[in-house]
Write a structure and sequence with these properties.
This protein is mostly helical. The chain has a domain of 67 residues: lambda repressor-like DNA-binding domains (434 Repressor (Amino-terminal Domain), Orthogonal Bundle). It has five helices and two strands. The protein has a two-stranded antiparallel sheet. It is elongated. It starts with a strand and ends in a 9-residue tail after the last helix.
């Protein structure tokens, strides 16, 4: 798989090409709908009804429907639904512990910030 480097605030992230061809051109609503469709497909593939999901997760079936159509839900709801579908791996790249910043690094980064200069000086 091809990768491109994206530089954001002096950090380099690797982003696969072709997984979602143009995610940056999608609106927040379109992204939410895509996530909802993925949840819906996973649930149907597992042959689980919304009522069964409610029993498994403790999340009301109407809230599960809201997630599947892309309505706003909480992170806890998303996590609960994915846990109930045995699909927490979909969040793995967001929960990586490798990228944690120590308090000492945070202090050092504050010291290194460029100070604003006034024009003419």
């Amino acid at each position: 798989m091809l990768y491109i480097r994206t530089i954001i605030y002096s950090n380099v992230y690797m982003r696969p090409i072709g997984m979602i061809s143009d995610i940056y051109s999608l609106s927040d609503r379109e992204i939410a709908e895509s996530i909802g469709k993925k949840i819906w497909r996973i649930r149907l593939y597992a042959n689980i009804t919304r009522a069964e999901m409610q029993d498994i997760t403790g999340i009301h079936r109407k809230t599960i429907r809201d997630a599947e159509i892309g309505n706003n839900i909480t992170m806890a709801t998303l996590t609960g639904i994915l846990r109930g579908l045995d699909s927490l791996h979909l969040l793995e790249s967001l929960v990586s512990r490798d990228e944690e910043i120590s308090p000492a690094d945070m202090v050092n980064n504050k010291r290194k910030r460029r100070k604003r200069t006034q024009p003419g000086t």
